[in-house]
Amino acid sequence: MDILNRITRKIAALPAGEECIISAQDLWLSRADFQSVSVFLSRESEKGSFSIAAAEDAPARIGSASLLVTKH
After folding, report:
1. Can you give the pLDDT at residue 57?
2. pLDDT tens digit string along 23-68?
3. What pLDDT score does 1 carry?
4. Which of helix, strand or coil describes residue 25?
5. Which of 16, 23, 31, 62 sits 20 to 30 Å CA-CA off 7?
């Protein structure tokens, strides 16, 4: 739960129009656990304060999963 709170606070602190990358490696999560975080963020993004997308521009890391978060 602490990870979800940290991510939520990080997104809330972003200025409108700013982006950040959230990755499994940075959070020290397995890909399976990061999938759960992705589902949570997807549902939270439906509220309209931010959007998420696959982070294609994220640095290539072996076994990583990343999301690009854009604050509205």
Report:
1. 59
2. 998 899 998 999 999 999 999 999 999 999 987 755 555 555 899 9
3. 64
4. helix
5. 62
For residues 72 and 64, what is the distance between their CA atoms, to the nearest angstrom? 26
Q: Which tokens hold the place of 9?
A: 């606070």
pLDDT at 54: 86
CA dihedral of residues 15, 5, 7, 3 (deg, nearest 10):
160
In this structure, which amino acid lies at residue 27? L
Per-residue confidence (pLDDT) for residue 65, from 0 to 100: 86
Residues of 4-14 as b/e, b for ≥16 C-beta within 10 angstroms? eeebeeebeeb
Angle (deg, nearest 10), helices 2-13 and 31-45: 50
Residue 53 amino acid letter: A
Pull the structure tokens for residue 13. Answer: 């602190």
Classified as helix, coil or strand, 47 is coil
